[in-house]
Protein 1
Amino acid sequence: MQKEQFSRIGYVLAVAGSAVGLGAIWKFPYVVGENGGSAFVMLYILICCLVAIPVFLAELSIGKLSESDSVNAFRKLAFKNKKFWGYVGGLTMVTAAVIASYYLVIIGWVFKYLTLSFTSLPKNIESSKDYFLEFLTKDSLGQFVFFALAFATCLLILSRGVKSGIEKISVWMMPALFLMLLFMLFYSCTMDGFIKAAQFLLVPDFSKITLASFFSALGLAFFTMSLGMAVIITYSASLSDDANLFRSTISVVGINILIAIIAGLVIFTFVFEFDAEPSQGVGLVFMSLPTLFANLGFTGNILAIMFFTALSFAALTSAISIIEPFVFFLIREFDISRAKSLAIVGGGIFALGILCIFANIEGVGDKYMVFGKDFFSFLDFTAEKILLPLGGIGGAIFAGYIIKKEALYTLFSPYMTDFMFDVWHILVRYVSPIFVLAIMINMLFFS
Ligand code: PHE
């Protein structure tokens, strides 16, 4: 089979496109809000360096050394228990596809708010809340239409393959996203709320750090860096041979943190400008922000259009990255066409997505609860709190203990000093798996 590879910049932008998504722009601000602001941001950055970067490099090495899909990557590189490791790879890829189903439903909400931004936005928090809840719990058709639109867009991009689909879309969507956020940042600078937002996000207050914030930072770092989900393995399998592996990784992490902070500054400027509550959870983007924009009249509409377009771009590039691993696996394993593979994976995701939509619809969702949770929350909980950390630990243990150290050294030594390599190897063997296990136990039993 002909090798289809990303260009150097294409890889960085595609992986950054995967990383920067609803996590960075939607979750990051509200988790920061809930955890007291700036000190949490520093903690997040620290954890990115100590845990996320080592696991990222572990997954990159699995992808690059094997140049295979995530199942065969593990099988190929394991010298024994090949079958077991193949299942680990398979699990991460299935998790990714499952996450894709509800992720696309949320992108549907973003699309809905993008269209709303062209008309009149809800003027106060009460009506904004009602509007969102009405859409979420009653409008199954509306949600379906926007979900189907998000789904079709992703499939269209994926049908073109790595180079002319994923790379092409990432190299213009990512800079466009960045420019839009930058414009919004400049606009925010002119508002009084900006100073407060900057203080909130950037001046650390360590008294606000608790054990719970520590775990939230770990979970967030994993989710926002697309780890534990076969994504980095799959993309790295198509990484060109002349890429600087270490620099590419640092660029991706840097872009992700930068964008999350810019998005946070913009959102909190509006929050403080209009005296809204910074720690209000998931409603921040879908309930408060539209109202805050509505206060600015026509300019508010323009800003809202920009914000929801940026969020759509960020989320679409992430969604394609979670669908690709399964698609790539089927193509390689069964030697079928990309179109056929997309039809199979897409069919499953589409069905799950519809179940997720109806899970929130009043009078329907309670007919198929799983373990006391509605179907949407059940998928979200199982994928993010159980399967994703397990996949992360699997990758770290595999690179740390199963792949031969010499092979890793040969791969990384052109780009890292010996000291850096040793530090990474120790982190990936001892620190990352323990940290991730700790997040998992905490999320499962204490939150
Ligand atoms: N990193 C993406 C985000 O922040 C989500 C994602 C998770 C994408 C896992 C791929 C894999 O929204």
Protein 2
Amino acid sequence: MSTPYQIAVIPGDGIGVEVVEAALTILDATGVSFEFNHYEAGDDCKAKHGVALPDETLKGATDAQAVFFGAAGDTAAEVILRMRKELDTFVNLRPSKAFQGAECLYPKTNIVIVRENTEGIYMGLEKEINPGEMHATRVITEAASTRIAKYAFEYATQNEYDTVTAIHKSNVMRLTDGLFLKCSRTVAKDYPNINYEEQLVDSAATLMVMDPYRFQVLLTPNLFGDILSDLAAGLIGGLGLCPSANLGDKYALFEPVHGTAPDIAGKGLANPTAAILCASMMLRHFGELDAAKNVESSLETAIANKQSTADLGGSLSTMDMAQAIINHMKG
Ligand code: NAI
Ligand code: MG
């Protein structure tokens, strides 16, 4: 038997725990060998140990070949933003692809958001200047903008997308988004086979709702990518369907786009699809393409058969949906 892949599993809080359990069951069923080491982080961890992201968890994450994360509640920034930073995962890759048979606004949506993951207004550089006056700093650098643009064009090339659209607000944020666009344009010149377009973030939001099929790969600064990926989730049927990968030169961390969903947590109602797609992204990351395709096509079949949770029009629980998917898997 091959050496198992070492995975640091951090389920976190709320439905994070439920969807991670479902995804690990699917990974076990692929036949690919994994060793899952579980670590604590999040609100419950903070209540228990006084810290949302213990050193032991961070060490487990950096020692592993990949991290599989669920969601954290109020402590999300302390947990996930810190991990993205410590692991220097400069890419946040967020595909939103509609499933056949799932009710949604736009059944042919296939949008991938390539979000810069280390800077922008998301760095949390905020301070109180005076009572009643708070300032936030938005950092955009040539180095980070260039490396994320390169990733977007490489991703488009390797995954057969024709178009990369840079999202910005450079008419207002002339210096920061001006630099982001300048770097995007420079990188675009090295990829003559990919169409390069630019769109203001506000009009991109309208166009994504009215005509999402015009978009393929969106290259975005940090906060715009966060917002537009939730919008993209809405086009295909909700947050339960959207996975993400945080990728750097050394580390990889996979997590659903959604949070802890306190409104449905603990009831077995959470859709495990986002976490299962995270599992298939992780399999692809390791080059386990057959296993990834097996998971993806079984998931598609289950959703098309309405063997799904209530948000997709089915009546199964989280774990029953996972089991239905396993029943469709080959091998
Ligand atoms: P949320 O993503 O947890 O939930 C938004 C809505 O989508 C809710 O109605 C929820 O029921 C639904 N939803 C989300 N995932 C679903 C799934 N798998 N299946 C079915 N329905 C699903 O976002 P919200 O409500 O804004 O935040 C709740 C908590 O999660 C907050 O404490 C927030 O800080 C945290 N959060 C953590 C994130 C992370 O750890 N990366 C990301 C986003 C939010
Ligand atoms: Mg978000």
